[in-house]
Design brief:
- Among the domains are: 13-73; 78-87 and 127-172, no CATH class.
- It has a two-stranded antiparallel sheet.
- It has four helices and four strands; from the N terminus they run ααααββββ.
- Strand 1 (142-144) and strand 2 (149-151) form a beta hairpin.
- By secondary structure, the protein is mostly helical.
- It is 63% helix and 6% strand.
- The chain is rod-shaped, with a radius of gyration of 42 Å.
- Residues 22-48 have a biased composition (Low complexity).
């Protein structure tokens, strides 16, 4: 790049040399700045690319950890569901037994005089055991709703037998 300068007749040789030297220094500084900028651009791009790759790797690791946690929890779900359903089933069985048992007002006089042959607690425990057995007999792909095995709806699954609920499938 050439610059034209008007030389005044009063300039001497030393002042012209000094002016030329200043212009050359400015030009060198500009070139150095341009070179530095050109060198820094690929480095910055490389750093950005590296950071993006690192973030993607961390996201994949987090997804993998969440998947492993889910897989660890799935086998425990049927046992937890059966344990949670057992008291409710026992309560329902006791209520059903109490509802079907004859009351003092409706029972015949002879029946009132004789004590019951089986305690209601035993009947409730038997009903709870039967409910738990029914819950564990549901196939994978279905769940126990407290009364019977029910097939999971679309986009849901039950990974193992004995589940008390279906899990929604979410693809990330």
């Amino acid at each position: 790049m050439y610059t034209s300068t008007h030389i005044h007749p009063n300039y001497d040789r030393d002042s012209l040399l000094l002016l030329l030297q200043q212009q050359q220094q400015e030009q060198q500084q500009q070139q150095q700045q341009q070179e530095q900028q050109q060198q820094q651009q690929p480095q910055q791009q490389q750093q950005q690319k590296h950071q993006k790759q690192k973030q993607q790797k961390q996201q994949k690791q987090q997804q993998h950890i969440l998947l492993l946690l889910l897989l660890l929890l799935i086998p425990k779900l049927p046992a937890a569901a059966a344990a949670a359903a057992a008291p409710a089933a026992a309560t329902r069985a006791a209520a059903a037994a109490a509802a079907t048992a004859p009351t003092a007002a409706t029972a015949p006089t002879a029946a009132r005089a004789t004590p019951p042959t089986a305690p209601t607690a035993t009947a409730a425990a038997a009903a709870a055991t039967a409910a738990a057995a029914a819950a564990t007999s549901c196939d994978a792909g279905s769940y126990y709703d407290g009364a019977a095995c029910v097939a999971c709806p679309a986009d849901y699954f039950s990974p193992s037998a004995g589940m008390s609920a279906c899990i929604q499938v979410c693809w990330i």
